[in-house]
Amino acid sequence: MSFSRARVRGRSHRLILSRYPTVGVFDDIAGDEAELRLAFALEDLTLRTPNRLAALPEGGLVTGPTASIVMAAFLHVADEGGRFHDAALGAWYAARDVATAIEETVHHNHRRLAASAGGFPARLQLRELVAGLDAQLLDLRGAQASHQELYRPDDYAASQAFARERRWPFAQPGEDGFVYDSVRRSGGECVVLFRPAAVPLPVLQGDHFEYVWDARGELTVLKLTSVDRA
Questions:
Q1: Are the C-beta atoms of 168 and 195 separated by less than 8 Å?
Q2: What are the start-end ranges of the H helices in the chain?
């Protein structure tokens, strides 16, 4: 497989469950990478999560305002991984517009709830994280026909293997990330960033949304706040 790189600029939008604190708990107590590594190592002990911190080489962490939000995407991930990461280390996923971010998160949360006999009705609140984007990314857009294995709806084995061979820090020098077509929203685009430093700080707080499923699993998306995007 051969793909070119593209410079991708603009805003990116990531939606996460709002149970996470708006201000990272480590932002004010970890002044440098050594202190942040210690804080995350202690957190790993309490959460009993795999030691993903060890996968990040020295200099691989970011520090400063909202750094803990970024690092959480790499350290606190589901064991089954995602489209372009496995259990060894997470990644920062975002969409290039809010509508795509909503469709991506609706799909994954609906699937999780539907797998439980008592999943519906349900309400989830999510908050938007807005980050700048200016990076050279491997361009996978338009490859659905020629590389269908990277765009399978729910089977990530091939796409995870593809990424593992190319992503930083497992490949050297390694790709900073990919830009690719959204599987959940036609015409939407997403990015995945493999290097924490590729996410510019600070990450800004955007809107809050609430996903409301009725007893039949029918969804209503509510916008709880309105942020000036000028």
A1: yes
A2: 33-47, 67-75, 98-114, 157-164
Which candidate, 3, 1, 2, 9, places its Cα nearest to that of 136? 9
pTM: 0.87
Distance of CA 166 to the CA centre of its chain: 18
Structure tokens at 54: 């060890």
Q: DSSP state, 85?
A: B
Nearest residue to 209 (alpha-carbon basis) of 130, 126, 129: 126
Q: At 126, list the tokens.
A: 């999510």
What burial class does residue 225 get, using C-beta atoms within 10 Å of its C-beta: 0-12 exposed, 13-18 middle, 19+ buried? exposed
Q: What is the pLDDT of residues 36-57, one digit of tens each?
A: 666 666 556 555 556 788 899 9
Site of tokens 């984007």 = 133
C-alpha dihedral (79, 49, 108, 115), degrees to nearest 10: 80
